Amino acid sequence: MVVNAIEFHEVSKTFPKASKPSVYNTTLTIEEGTFVTILGTSGSGKTTLLKMVNRIHEPSSGKIFVQGEDVSKVSVTELRRKIGYVIQQIGLFPHMTIEENIATVPKILKWDSKKIKERVEFLLELVHLPPNEFLKRYPRQLSGGQQQRVGIARAMASDPDIMLMDEPFGAIDAITRSSLQDELISIQKRLKKTILFVTHDINEALKLGDKIIVMDQGKVQQYDTPLNILMNPANEFVSRLVSSEDIFQLLGMLQADSVMVPLSQVSMNNTKTVKHNDHLKKVLTLLLNSDIDGVIVEDDKKNPIGAITFEQLKLNNKIKQAVFPL
Fold first, then answer.
1. Which domains, and CATH codes, for the chain?
2. ABC transporter domain: which residues (predicted)?
3. What is the pLDDT of residues 235-258, one digit of tens each?
4. Between these two residues, 48 and 301, which has the higher pLDDT value?
5. 33 and which of 185, 192, 232, 296 could share a cystine (Cβ 3.0–4.6 Å)?
6. How do strand 194-199 and strand 23-31 relate by DSSP bridges?
7. Do 235 and 254 touch, CB atoms closer than 8 A?
8. 99 by DSSP, 3-state: which?
């Protein structure tokens, strides 16, 4: 049964003295365990939408439900303890060690010291910061990327089912940013957290999201899978957003499992295999440079879970124009 982690029911937000809403009447459903990116330019309403979930901003109208519960009926403190929150500025306490920073919420929740220690060490391992090296360090002794990893670990300390992330990698250099993106994808797949992630970067939105909310001027323009947004934009705004980038490069942000079809739907003789999280650009390169009918997509345990064929991709007009122009 599909469970909804977050539901927006005709939610809007107008700030005092504002001439128009920051977010117009919005109805959306975020399913449990999905990674949803919110894509939009500055002033599009994406951060306001995010911050209404944990009541940093209160809606002007409508209702928001978290795991079936009306957030307006829950105390703000109780609500925020159940939701992880990561921002670009990180906000680590400079006078506390990394261990103490991550342990902040578990201590408030009165976890016993043994459980807290185990949780902190587990999370540091999860974000690839060896505990024996980092437990006793202070934030000033870490790079920006390392600090952001600690910020993610701290947000996950109480083991929340839902994570809100507001452009957390915006101030990080490109190489570190890509590494952190990969890390976050791995964590989400492993722990099945529901993540709502704000970004203004289309490449980041495509790479991270199972689904993408595209916003402009306070309104949701499209809420769909990365592939559908790329190949079937809902309106002129989304079309311009997508066409402003090189389609072939954008395909490098999509994973093989986002375009595969069931094995039962295809008949192939000569094949090669790819991992479920390999980028579609790698798949296209294989199809273009190998004498094969298609590729078999495998999961992490090397079990076949789907297929991508040469003909299947050529049927898509945008892929055909970008990759098979002749």
1. 4-246 (3.40.50.300), 251-323 (3.90.1280.20)
2. 6-242
3. 999 988 887 666 666 777 788 888
4. 48
5. 192
6. unpaired
7. no
8. helix
The residues facing 153 across adjacent strands are none
**Is 317 exposed, middle or buried, given 0-12, 13-18 or 19+ CB atoms closer than 10 A?**
exposed
Query: What is the phi/psi pair of residue 170, to 5°?
Result: -65, -30
Instruction: Give the Cα separation of 114 and 98 in Å (integer).
Output: 17
Residue 39 pairs in a beta bridge with: 199, 214
Task: For 12-66, give the secondary structure using H, E and C.
Answer: EECCCCCCCCCEEEEEEEEECCCEEEEECCCCCCHHHHHHHHCCCCCCCEEEEEE
The encoded tokens of residue 273 equal: 């295999």
Report the predicted TM-score, pTM, of the whole model to 2 decimal places: 0.84
| Region of poorest pLDDT, from 42-51, 94-103, 279-288, 306-315 | 306-315
In the structure encoding, which two tokens stand for residue 276, read together?
């479920």
